[in-house]
Amino acid sequence: MTTTATATKQFMSTEQLLEHWQGHRNLTRRVIEAFPEKELFEFSVGGMRPFAKLALELIGIGGPALKGIVDGTTEAYNEEAFNPKTKEEILKKWDEETGVINHYFGQISEERFQETFNLFGEYEFPVYQNILYFVDNEIHHRGQGYTYLRALGIEPPFFWERF
């Protein structure tokens, strides 16, 4: 019996993954900006959370999760850690967390992306799957934001304009 080794090519570099994620973050930031301030904190459809609460969830996941991955800590998710009163505060914190994400993402080696990590002490998956979850969760919540904006008669940013 003969065996054949197959060379595989890398689909995407870690830098490209970060760029992809930050593209989504850029678009979500523009969705936050599109909301009138009152509606950002109060408007919802069908009993879903207002978009400010969804943005706070995203703020509470990305940077803190990557810090945990790098440090090897599994602190519980804390959505109440930041309690803004204005859209400006949310956008400022969003921008700060972008820096945190860039800082910690750059400290994850190629090998670590395959390691299992217990995110927030709740979800045990390989690091790369955790990061893909962050992106998927953001897209999901941004879709809710698009629904809210359309219900308010506001044209949301084009979904393909992420940069």
UniProtKB/TrEMBL annotation:
Superkingdom assignment: Bacteria
Name of the protein this chain belongs to: Damage-inducible protein DinB
Any Pfam family matching the protein: DinB
GO molecular function, one term: metal ion binding
Organism, scientific name: Chryseobacterium lactis
Family to which the UniProt record says this protein belongs: Belongs to the DinB family.
Binding site for a divalent metal cation: H141
Keywords: Metal-binding
